[in-house]
Specification:
Layout (H helix, E strand, L loop, with lengths): L5 H13 L2 H8 L3 H15 L4 E3 L4 E3 L1 H28 L4 E7 L8 H11 L3 E7 L2 H10 L4 E5 L8 E16 L10 H5 L3 E3 L5 H12 L8 E2 L3 H9 L4 E5 L11 E19 L7 H11 L5
Parallel strand pairs: 3-4, 3-5, 7-8, 7-9
Antiparallel strand pairs: 1-2, 5-10, 6-9, 6-10
Helix pairs in contact: 1-2, 1-3, 1-4, 2-3
Length: 296
């Protein structure tokens, strides 16, 4: 039997992920007949059906799912091999791609990068930032080696997650407001409040907090930038729920933080692929991040 073709495997993985030959063709910059041909040639070579063409979605068969999982590893290894050879030609010994969700962690990243560079001096640490859900997808696809993301999201099969930080979420309100000792969903729902983007985990936590109290309030504003949100709170525009990490930028003098009741917390986990060896560089980098404390 001839060797498997990496381009055909990449096509199968893309079809399985997007559930459509048309979308896969668009993503891969191929014609739809070319995508269909790649999949059918794989099926002929292996003498097994790999996908089921449903009315709304193309889904992998059990054999197809097995091949998709193995193909992801093969494609990742091929990318890593090419990258490794290129780095060697530039005199770079090793390379780790770290993705970090910056929400509430921007003050930690400089110290974290200094620690990684000191501990892994010969390695090139490449930092990527983005939303937690996107970073996890990049980790699964092999485009990242380590991901620092919000806890509470489903990491999926093949990903190891280690708890790194746990921080209470607090109601940040103008001092001019007569806030209670603990802010409840009903109290906050009766006042203007600012939220992060709906795709963030903190937004989903906050909306679930309201829903558990039987409330569905409408935020006054969506604002993805914490520093801007703090300024708006200082101006009396509204309140917000956010984590306040030790060492982060102090609150303005005319703003105060109040505990929530019921309490909420923001957790951060460090993830890497579970098929990485214990002594592999991504595993060691993930472990070093999990031990890092900027206060020590």
């Amino acid at each position: 039997m001839r060797e498997l073709n990496l381009d055909q495997l990449r096509t199968l993985v893309t079809v399985a992920e997007l559930g459509s030959f048309t979308l896969a063709a668009r993503a891969l910059h191929l014609s739809q007949p070319a995508v269909s041909l790649h999949v059918s040639e794989l099926e002929k070579r292996l003498d097994v059906a790999l996908v089921v063409r449903g009315p709304r979605r193309v889904s992998p068969t059990p054999a197809g799912e097995e091949l998709v999982q193995r193909a992801r590893r093969l494609l990742r290894e091929a990318r890593d091999t090419v990258d490794s050879v290129k780095r060697r030609s530039l005199g770079i010994a090793s390379h780790v791609r770290v993705g970090a969700s910056t929400g509430g962690l921007s003050h930690v990243l400089p110290g974290l990068l200094r620690m990684l560079e000191a501990q892994f001096g010969d390695a090139q640490i490449e930092l990527h930032t983005g939303r937690s859900i996107d970073l996890l997808q990049s980790l699964k696809a092999g485009d990242l080696d380590v991901a620092v993301v919000a806890g509470g999201l489903p990491v999926g099969e093949g990903i190891s997650a280690q708890l790194w930080r746990s921080t209470p979420l607090l109601a940040v309100v103008p001092k001019a407001w007569k806030a209670p000792a603990h802010v409840t969903p009903r109290w906050l729902a009766a006042r203007p409040f600012i939220v992060n983007e709906p795709t963030t985990h903190i937004y989903m936590q906050l909306m679930a907090w309201f829903a558990q109290a039987g409330l569905q309030p409408t935020p006054r504003l969506e604002m993805p930038y914490d520093e801007v949100t703090r300024g708006l709170i200082s101006a009396g525009y509204g309140a917000a729920v956010m984590p306040l990490e030790a060492g982060s930028t102090p609150l303005p003098r005319d703003v105060r933080a109040v505990p929530l009741r019921p309490a909420l917390k923001r957790t951060v986990v460090v993830c890497h692929r579970s098929d990485d060896a214990d002594d592999a560089l991504p595993t060691r980098v993930a472990q070093a991040i999990g031990r890092f404390d900027e206060r020590t």
